[in-house]
Amino acid sequence: MHNPKSKIQNLKFETLAVHAGVEPDPATGAVMTPIYQTSTYAQADVGRHQGYDYSRTDNPTRTALQTAMAALEGGRHALAFSSGMAAIDTLLRLVRPGDHVICGNDVYGGTFRLFDKVLGHYGLAFSYVDTSNLAAVQAALRPNTKLVWLETPTNPMLRLTDIAAVAAVAHQAGAWLGVDNTFASPALQRPLELGADFVIHSTTKYIGGHSDVVGGVIILNDTSIYETLKFLQNAIGAVPGPVDCFLTLRGIKTLALRMEAHCRNATQVAQFLADHPAVAEVIYPGLDSHPQHELARRQMKGPGGMVSFLLHAGEAAAWVVARETQLFTLAESLGGVESLIELPAPMTHASVADSPLAVDAGLVRLSVGIENVQDLIADLAQALKAAGGAG
Which of 7, 56, 113, 230 is labelled catalytic? Predict the structure, then answer.
């Protein structure tokens, strides 16, 4: 079999998305990576196998996915997990009791829940700061800070952090930088190239892209740390099944095209909302009004497919809009080809309700899909009208 990395050197992203990790099956010549639906593997002799002995440890379909994700993020190594939260939890096993972690103060509710309600009980200390403010990150550093954790863009307020600047500050203090790149995807942003030590994705979102599979991944360059994480992946066992890996690989092939469509549609949706009299504020990195608009232009290849907004009429009107859309499905998650709408405060971010990370109860978050944008705008227009806004 050919070296799976041999044909992915110096290729453009669109080509990588189609080819990385995928080689014709040596047994049959199948172009698509087979689903190796097996738990165990025959061994030629005691302890002598062909690289696979048990599918919790390794599976050929998972190997293909990991190779692809490493290539897409420009990293040496990748490890796939059963969910984004499983990936984050495994990475945090590198942090020891007594260590300190700086986390952004606007992150996915499940991340805060894991840090605050689970890992905080095991001797880890967490500080939550606005990572878009470099001075705030510097002020939060302690002698025992081991990890700086950030999302950029954040969930759900879409704040951006200068990855290179925070990486320099973290490394000077002897800490790692981990970046949750779920909202951007490697099609728009590659944090390892900006100095991050770890990149994490919920592959459930833009990577898979079709709302039909749950998964997560960690990508990194350091081989020694990779070996530790590989041990933890096997020891803890929160790994994806081969069907999940196959579906994620299939989704990756259209990632570049999908992200172009997400960005194009979200830009027009955001501008429509910004011009609508019922809308008080639109939060979208692609708008000039975004506080980090210039950083977005510098750090990202596109502004992404996520849009958040607030209405003049407040929470009650937001509930009406969320209920009344017809093409925007009221559902949690994001990053699929179909458009979704949600209210983060009672839904994806309910776990931060009584914390400093609490979200405005009237905030509406859109995951703008790849449908015809005029249909999406018409749907939002009728929902805003139902909520009492001008048509």
Answer: 56
